[in-house]
Amino acid sequence: MLLGALALSLLAVWPEAGRAAEWGGIEPGVTTAEQLRERYGPPTKETRRKVEGYDTFEWLFEGRQAPVGFIRMTVDFGILMPSGYSPSVVRVLRLDPKPFIFGRDTILDGWGQPDQVGAKDEREMFVYRSGLVVIFDPSGTLATSLYFSVKQPDQPAAAPAPSAAPPSPSPAPAAPRPPPVRR
Length: 183
Description:
mainly beta
């Protein structure tokens, strides 16, 4: 069930009311590539893919191009909305903070108690219906990855396939990309 919440963040239908969890002016389902480029400049790397027939792309910001306090910021674009497919709208934002930037208490102070708590590869994971998933280090005290996606519905959708799992905490450029989120 816990892993299902993350799968829903990648596959769920966007509810009519409510906003997604956002960070640094980036809101999945709302922010465009143009807006992101205006705010953060050009990415370190751009990767284009075809997912279920849709053209998607990913921007990676590393080193000096990453926001202050982060090792990297990865942004996936391409989302299916009621008005149709929007290839340049943010689907998922991943932040990999430097050590000691996002401790457990900082996460709880900033986002409150998670809607679900689980584990991913023996690491504690917080899942918020607002669209945030946080994966902690093995000690459970420091966040190693924060994933922002569209807001989750208040009532869970149909159970996801048992093989659904959250994204890997380390970059995997050759891994297949999830399908676009329906909004």
